Every structure is written in C-alpha cells, then in structure tokens.
# Entry
Amino acid sequence: MSTSRRTNGTAKPPPRSSTTITASSTKTSTPTRLLHPSELLLLLTYPSILILGSLFSLLDPSARNAPYSALQQSHPPEFAPNYFALKRNIFNQFFVKVGWFWFSVAWAVWVGVGVGMVKKAKAKAEQQRVVEVDDDEKDLNAGEGLVLTPQRLRSILRWAVVTLWWLLVTQWCFGPALIDRGFRVTGGQCERIRDDAARQEMGELRELVTAAACKIAGGEWKGGHDISGHVFILVLGSAAVGLEVLGALVKGEEEGERRLGKWGWGIVLGVVGMSWWMLLMTAAYFHTWFEKFTGLLTAFLGITAVYLLPRVSPSVKGVLGIPGQ
# Structure
C-alpha cells in the first residue's frame, strides 16, 4: 500500500508547473496589434477630410456654380467662391508651398523634446525615490532630454526616408520627379498657347519634361494625369508627424509622462491642424476627384513603407523601429 501511494504521488505532475506552462504558451500566442486605435483614427482622418471637402464643393451653391478650369486645376481667380479658393492666398503661398519646411520644424521640435517624454521603467523607479532637488539640478535633469538615444536616431532615420519619398515624388527622381514622369506617361506634354509665333517652337517645348521648366518657358502643362501634389505633401507630412507623436503618447500611457510643453504642443498641433485645414480647402476647391485620390494613395504608400511595414517585418523594424519603442 505504501509503495503504491509513493508511486501515485510521484506520478502526479506539480500543479504549479502545469499552470506556468499554460500561461507562457498563452502569452506567446497573443497576436501583435498592427495599429493602435488612435493611429487608425489618424489615418482615417485623411480620406474623411477629402470626402467632406468634395461634398462641400457639391453642396455649396457658390462653389457649385463657379466655373472650374481643368487647365488651372482650380476656379479662375475672377470666379473664385472665396479667399481660400485662390491659389495666391497667404496660407497656400507660405504654408503649403513650403510645407516640408514646416513639417520638418514640427518633427524637429518633437524629436528634440517630445521623444524624451517616454520614460523607461528604470527611470520611473528612480522617480519614486524621495529626493530633494533644487532648481539648478532640475534644469540639468531637463537637459537630459536632448541625449541622442536609439529612439531619436530611429526617428531621424524614419524622417530621412519620408523626406526621400517626398523628394522622389515632387522634386527629383534621377531626372524629373515621379509626378512629372507620371504626367508624361499618361499622355501629358508642354504646350505654348500665348501667341501663334510661339506655337512654331512647340516641338522643343514638348521635350520639356517638368512642370516647372514648362512654366518658365511660357508653356502650359496639359494632357496627362496630374497627381495632386498638395494632397500628397499635406497627407504625407502631417501623417508622419502625427504617427511619431501618437506612437510615443501610446507608450507614454504606461511608461512615461508628457513633457513637451505648451510652446512645443503649439508648434506640432498648429502645423498638423493647418495641414488638415488646407487639405479640406484643397478637397473643396482644387483638383479633380481622381487627382486627389492618387495624391492620397501616393502619400499612403510612403506611410505604409515607413510606419506599417516595420510592424510586420522584423528586419525592417530592426532598422527603422516603431515610434515610441
């Protein structure tokens, strides 16, 4: 009887080890979330703004009844429904036209100050100690946020890749930019329409392959599909800044505190907010539906490569990282 009891006793597995194995296997099988709900909401904001602006242009009598020039991709100035429908409006000239400068400023403010808001567990534990710190020491501790951490290095690399995509699409791609190349591939060309004598030089002008060169030569960029550069830059820049901020904020809910400051938030939110407003104005008064859609799609291609691909590819994640991690 005693031998049987010892055999039965040794045969039974310890209940604690069984529980431990089950818990670890459950933890391993937990799927990784591709996007936080706030990040998904941010990305859904852009098609929503484009739809809202387009609906407004259809429902507003002044916009609906104003003639539209496909050549100018806008309402003629003399028939513009309001100030924001004019290409020369101050926000278009000094914000959208130099938009990448403003997005870079907002990103620099964030990566210089805001990225430091995410505190790791070790720093959080140190904060729990009761230590008397004078004002001078507080100032020194605040300066620690400017250390070139791995998070900041990867944020710099992400912004470099996003900026490269902006350059390739709008400025230069081993010659003409992708927007100009797409226009030419779809049948577009440069045509001079100012006077009859100038039309004799049409053959030379048709060889001009960029919109800027065409305008300088006195021609018109006509015939092909023109991706909306306004939609592209406004979506790409503000979405990149927004994802950088949201990534750290989501992480900061558990591991950190917010330290950006009123002036920093003013710059970041001001740039993103202005880009949303100008995107709404672009949707309402400029470009065709298809031009705006291809601008959105081209911007999302860059966002997907830099901010979504690392979440499903460990090798890409090892290089670019993920905001807040």
